[in-house]
Design goal:
With 450 residues, the chain is of the alpha/beta class. The protein contains 19 helices and 14 strands.
């Protein structure tokens, strides 16, 4: 089989490469000539563990190629995947479908035989039918079907998610298109991966509903963490007790500074807007968006409170800029709220992230960027852990103690054990757990401020 993939961003490049791993001939196309040239030279425009090796393997096998020529990607293709960006519109949060419809109209010009057009981008309900209308208008003689096939790729684990998914969702109406999709996903079908064949509208809703539910789960445990701090509980114990219930599960029950990234913020906003458009308000999701927005700013208040209520002129060491580990993605990352809020309060920031600093330099100013995790700590008044990179989990605490001016650590990811920090005499403030050495005063200040 042969497919074309329009867009070599995160979704397009990972999906195209993994389909090639399935034995499919894949042509990835992008208008960005520099990106295509980089890919042809063996470079990778995004950070995703293992992707560079898999791309090289598939290019060498002759199953994966890159071009700026859309006709080359569409010609003789059994299916063409639209994997372009759908960023939220500034004015209302709705997904901007400009690139989707532009791709659809351009694909239409090159269709010759029967082709399945696949919406891989995250798109609002009804988009598949609108894409079909756009193609039909641009090429009335085209023989095609439009299918919705949402992606469920986690940054940092995208390859495994594609090759070993929990499920594959396909929104399809014709048997002809259904058979093409079955053949494309045949390796997963043989391995008895659940294949959810449904209507395009249901497939589109599944994507948004899944991400909104996970975002709500994160927000819920953050609210419970606040209760634990006020009442003297331990959110990790609470989450463990909840997660052992098979109806709930343990995933996404980790208290922290709020969700970020390219999916949850965008998709929750979009779902709220979709609900309004259809006269079915998504009140719960709307509240999740609001709480998460406030949560990130509250984390800056937590740091200020830990520093005695004033950070003016104080140096704050920050570990972690990316919204999660194993990615250089900083979109909607809590750090992008926390750091400016601390700077606004007069703090001096020194920071380190293993892979996201180049992206961060484009949007954060007046930050001292450091090449290793220990450099920001030198003479710092507090250490703040924002992203739970593995290398931050194993810091040499005696070295941390030696470098810090004040033995204050604000751990927004709960990566250290309370007894260990207590034994070393740190003033350790985490999320939803008993604070050590003055931490109760921090909780009291935060409650008073709210």
């Amino acid at each position: 089989m042969k497919i074309g993939v329009v867009g070599t961003g995160y979704v397009g490049l990972v999906s195209g490469t993994c389909f090639a791993e399935f034995g499919v001939e894949v042509v990835c196309v992008d208008k960005d000539a520099r990106k295509i040239e980089m890919l042809k030279r063996g470079g990778i425009p995004i950070y995703e563990p293992g992707l560079d090796d898999l791309v090289a393997k598939q290019v060498k096998a002759g199953r994966l190629s890159f071009t700026t020529d859309l006709a080359e990607a569409v010609r003789d293709a059994d299916a063409v995947f639209i994997a372009v960006g759908t960023p939220p519109r500034v004015e209302d949060g709705q997904a901007d479908l400009t690139y989707v419809f532009q791709a659809a109209e351009e694909i239409a010009q090159h269709l010759t035989g029967y082709t399945v057009i696949v919406d891989k981008s995250t798109v609002p309900v009804g988009t598949a039918r609108r894409v079909a209308e756009a193609i039909r208008k641009a090429n009335p003689n085209a023989d095609f079907d439009v299918v919705s096939n949402p992606e469920f790729l986690r940054e940092g684990a995208a390859i495994d998610d594609f090759l070993r998914p929990d499920r594959v969702v396909v929104g399809v109406e014709s048997e002809r298109a259904r058979e093409v999709m079955r053949q494309l996903y045949r390796p997963l079908y043989i391995n008895e991966t659940p294949m959810v064949m449904t209507s395009p509208e249901s497939a589109e809703i599944i994507k948004y509903a899944s991400n909104a539910f996970l975002a709500a789960k994160i927000t819920f445990i953050n609210e419970i963490a606040n209760l634990c701090e006020a009442a003297g509980g331990n959110v990790q114990d609470v989450a463990k007790g909840m997660g052992l219930d098979g109806r709930i599960g343990s995933k996404f029950l980790h208290a922290g500074p709020g969700y970020g990234g390219s999916c949850f913020p965008k998709d929750t906003l979009a779902l709220v807007q979709i609900g309004q458009n259809f006269g079915a308000p998504q009140t719960l999701v709307d509240k999740v968006v609001e709480i998460n927005h406030d949560r990130q700013r509250e984390m800056a208040d937590r740091v200020i409170a830990a520093c005695g209520g004033d950070v003016k002129g104080k140096k704050i060491a920050v570990l972690g800029i990316a919204f999660k580990p194993n990615t250089d993605d900083i979109r909607e990352a809590p750090s992008l709220v926390i750091i400016p809020e601390l700077q606004k309060a007069g703090a001096k920031i020194a920071a380190h992230d293993p892979v996201a600093m180049e992206n961060a330099k484009k949007v954060l100013s007046d930050v001292e960027w450091c090449d290793d995790a220990y450099a920001p700590m030198r003479d710092a008044d507090a250490l703040v852990i924002v992203t739970e990179w593995n290398e931050f989990r194993g810091l040499q605490l005696d070295r941390v103690e030696e470098l810090l001016k004040s033995k204050t650590i604000v751990d927004l990811r709960n990566i250290y054990k309370l007894p260990e920090m207590q034994a070393r005499g740190f003033r350790y403030i985490s999320i939803g757990r008993p604070a050590l050495d003055g931490g109760q005063a921090v909780s009291q200040k935060l409650r008073a401020a709210s």
